[in-house]
């Protein structure tokens, strides 16, 4: 990507974006239910999807000022998006996803995440907090090197997305659960490739261990993708409701 | 199985109070980030006995999809619905058929080598 490419980008327009589904949900929820929402995809995800991860890394070395320009443009658009989202009266939390890690570390250096992306999460979190709403972050991978930044500087209120081969949710909660909420954690390998009875046992175990410590909600370690057997999903949800 | 719940009693405020530590953990609520339509569809059709409608370009199909979406999260025992869409940034995606059993939809993967620009 070059500066010429940057000048030619047709940026989306928040003013003409169709917020209908958000507004429909906001006005049709049953009593007691809340709306949890966010922009789809985080700022780090979108810049690497626009430039490709390879292209992004290349420009990060050759022309960091271009990375700054693209990230600021995306960030400004997302900021405007959040201004609209935060007007919805049934919104109870802002819960975006922005995967910044992989199995053994962050996808780019912690320093670059701190320079270009975490300041935007800090702004989005501050906007949510101004409305009295928590900011939960879904971010996959090993984020150990930026966890202090996320908690103390960005001020996330909770973290979602765990893999047992990185850090089991029980261990993560032991380390950070005093400061933030812990969301989910039932490993996708268990959900995707075990029996329903094994899923039930894991669910019960998480509730007994993590639930007992507080500030915990039970669910998958990542999401319920298409390959999760429906009966395993039922087993997790049913067991959680039975335990509750 | 107790799902789908017949008389759900969602408490979004209580859910948030537990997670923010404003209230003690009186229960362990459910949380989910995304439930794929491939998993949601059989629940809507067979457990909730509703007609599945894909999210289309017209308002009628969008309303029908969102009504099912709400009913799914409500009857499965969640205190909230989570929903998100994205601004249309210019991005390159690799699109192939989803290999999951029962899925007929295409699946998008990030193109790690080719920029859309």
Provide the gyration radius of chain A in Å. Answer: 19 Å
Class by alpha and beta content of chain B: alpha+beta
* Beta-strand segment tally of chain B: 3
Instruction: Give the fraction of residues assigned to helices of chain A.
Output: 40-55%
Summarize model confidence as the mean pLDDT of chain B. Answer: 95
Show the helix and strand layout.
The complex is a heterodimer of chains A (244) and B (117).
Chain A: H1 3-8, H2 20-28, E1 34-39, H3 43-51, H4 53-62, H5 64-85, E2 91-94, E3 101-102, E4 105-106, H6 110-130, E5 136-138, H7 147-154, E6 158-160, H8 169-176, E7 181-183, H9 188-193, H10 196-213, E8 216-217, H11 230-243
Parallel strand pairs in A: 1-2, 5-6, 6-7, 7-8
Antiparallel strand pairs in A: 3-4
Helix pairs in contact in A: 3-4, 3-5, 4-5, 5-6, 6-7, 10-11
Chain B: H1 12-20, H2 37-47, H3 59-75, E1 80-85, E2 93-97, E3 106-110
Write a structural description:
The complex is a heterodimer of chains A (244) and B (117). With 244 residues, chain A is an alpha/beta fold. Helix content of chain A is 54%, strand content 10%. Chain A is built from eleven helices and eight strands. A four-stranded parallel β-sheet of chain A has the order 5-6-7-8. Chain A has a two-stranded parallel sheet with strand order 1-2. Chain A has a two-stranded antiparallel sheet with strand order 3-4. The longest helix of chain A is centred in the first third of the chain and has 22 residues. Chain B is α+β, with helices and mostly antiparallel strands and 117 residues long. In chain B, 32% of the residues lie in helices and 14% in strands. Chain B has three helices and three strands, in the order αααβββ. Chain B has a two-stranded antiparallel ribbon. The N and C termini of chain B lie far apart (50 Å). The model of chain B has no long low-confidence stretch (mean pLDDT 95). The chains are: A alpha/beta (244), B alpha+beta (117). At the A-B interface, α1, α2, β1, α3 and α4 of A face α1, α2, α3 and β1 of B. β1 of chain A pairs parallel with β1 of chain B, so a sheet runs across the interface.
